[in-house]
């Protein structure tokens, strides 16, 4: 039977303590016990269903974690205060001094900076590779390698990782395959393809309203328990704790994710096809011209499309900036970082979300000054949006 992630979310039933159709929000930082022994047992991790302190967990956070685990098809999940809170905790949990990571070279700038500049302080080194070339990935693996890290669809170049093939490689070398699935929730289900751990920035498509920062780690019960361990768990000790009110808010928005992702994908595919027809250098996994179009098709949960992200290379930073400013002036979207909002967001990643990557490395991976990253919104009339964008481009002599 085909994996149906949205069904898994909707099949979960949570009632509030007074019969509300939404679960009650646990608005407490600490919890009381009827006996001192139960408190001791909870500290030791042996009192299932008891709550101690909100940095450990809360009912609200567990509800959201259960829903996200159901979406990704993992045993369980733990939520964090940000996507980076999830990424850093996972990598610090899996690696010790002297260990090595093989990572895709085209990843979110914050992740790149963490691996390039921060983890070497702890004697953890990273090799950055072209994740689409399996022989290059395998050649980078050493006896000290512990983790193979990638994004399902990379930020910002939209390279597509062959998760099933990478999983075989990881198993061959006894590595953990960690996949950031932020760009493709519902569209791709990494654990169904062999990923060990799936990470999301909940800030983006999953929440969808650009009002909350959050993250999640989806994995086995054993691994999530390790992350939460009071003695040596990275989530526990690094303290990236999600607030219960935010967890409750994201859970409500998660229930409409399937509808939103279909519209994001529909709109993005329409614009990508029109831009490409206009002669613009357009990258979108839903285009047959994308080098990994067939790979994405083979991995995707078809109903949710190829995602809401696309890029267009305008040729220069000045032209890119002028176009983005004009599109914002015409109310076609916002010149802003992040993604997954109801309104289209656009930015030049080389000077924003990927600015942590040195310019020479940006050029090597194909990230040009004139590249605009679009997070396509939920426009009801995408034909009108295209017409107005086309007019903006003609006004600036881009077309």
Automatic annotation (TrEMBL):
Cofactor(s), by name: pyridoxal 5'-phosphate
Keyword tags: Aminotransferase, Pyridoxal phosphate, Transferase
InterPro entries membership: Cys/Met-Metab_PyrdxlP-dep_enz, PyrdxlP-dep_Trfase, PyrdxlP-dep_Trfase_major, PyrdxlP-dep_Trfase_small
Coiled-coil positions: none
N6-(pyridoxal phosphate)lysine found at: 204
Pfam families: Cys_Met_Meta_PP (PF01053)
Any one of the GO BP annotations: transsulfuration
GO cellular component, one term: cytoplasm
One MF term in the entry's GO annotations: transaminase activity
Annotated CDD domains: CGS_like
Family of this protein: Belongs to the trans-sulfuration enzymes family.
UniProt cross-references to PANTHER family, sorted A to Z: CYSTATHIONINE GAMMA-LYASE, TRANS-SULFURATION ENZYME FAMILY MEMBER
Protein name: Aminotransferase class I/II-fold pyridoxal phosphate-dependent enzyme
Organism encoding this protein: Gelidibacter salicanalis
